[in-house]
């Protein structure tokens, strides 16, 4: 037997009511607008603005060789520009670095906006700690001597960002054969960072421990 509901006009089968609900919901979904995947109709006055396949926007006039479509060969080579940018970045790393911290540590805090979706999901308020860079202890004593940070590199184009500024680091990279550096499995490339390059792969703080002199000597020999 099909259940029914009583109305002013008599009994209405439940199945009929369900059909009416389905039709109503279907019509509601048809009239509800969703953003298209291809970007069309986001601006109803200009339906194709920003859509996939539309023209790129120009803020300056075109500069074709013939004024129509030919490439402008008078412009610098993209390869030259890439090389210049890369070399500029290399020089920046070569002549300066200031990532070490001073002792004692100076820990500061970066305020996080309330409700940040990554760092403050619950909206309780938090911050991101960071340590200030190492500085010359002879500076920062007064208005006539403001703090000056320390350069971890040499200021010369001498390869210090590759070979380091300490002999111990350099020794870990050398093969001691024909004046060459160590190579990994891929020839002409340095080996991957692994326990055989200990100075560049220090143990995490949680496993630091104090060793007796004999144990320390024996483990250091293994390096």
UniProtKB/TrEMBL annotation:
One of its GO terms (molecular function) is heme binding. The keyword Signal applies. InterPro entries: Haem_peroxidase_animal, Haem_peroxidase_sf, Haem_peroxidase_sf_animal. Residues 1-28 form the signal peptide. PROSITE patterns: PEROXIDASE_3 (PS50292). The keyword Oxidoreductase applies. Keywords: Oxidoreductase, Peroxidase, Signal. GO terms for biological process: response to oxidative stress. It holds the Pfam family An_peroxidase. PANTHER family: NAD(P)H OXIDASE (H2O2-FORMING), OXIDASE/PEROXIDASE. This is Protein Skeletor.
